[in-house]
Amino acid sequence: MFSLPKLLVIALVFGAIYYFFFRKPKTVEKSKKNPKKPKHDQIEDTMIACPSCGTFVSTDDAFIKNGQYFYSKACMDK
């Protein structure tokens, strides 16, 4: 009735139709199940004014002396 090559072509056509028209996108399902959490780099830093010069500096980049955050070593030595 049908030869093997014809059956393969028909199966490929039906597979392609299913793939392009009836398949649900996986990205929509993933985004609902796994909400993105902010990475450590994306978390905002606290900005503090230097007591010596008044410049705002991030707590990660500041120099600390006696519990105070300074903009630079020069401000810290004043």
What does this structure look like?
The protein has 78 residues and is α+β, with helices and mostly antiparallel strands. It has one domain. Helices cover 41% and strands 15% of the residues. It contains 3 helices and 4 strands, in the order H-H-E-E-E-E-H. The strands form 2 sheets. A two-stranded antiparallel sheet has the order 1-2. A two-stranded antiparallel ribbon has the order 3-4. A hairpin with a 2-residue loop joins strand 3 and strand 4. The longest helix has 19 residues, at 4-22. It is rod-shaped and about 95 Å long. The model has no long low-confidence stretch (mean pLDDT 81).
- Main pleated sheet: 2 strands, antiparallel
Strand order of the largest sheet: 1-2
List how many beta strands DSSP finds: 4
Strand content: 15-25%
Low-pLDDT sequence parts: none
Q: How much helical structure, as a percent, in the residues?
A: 40-55%
Which structural class fits the helix and strand makeup? alpha+beta
* Secondary-structure element order, N to C: HHEEEEH
Distance between the termini: 96 Å
Tally of helical runs: 3
- The value of Rg in angstroms is 31 Å
List the domain count as a whole number: 1
Average pLDDT, to the nearest integer? 81
The dominant shape is rod-shaped
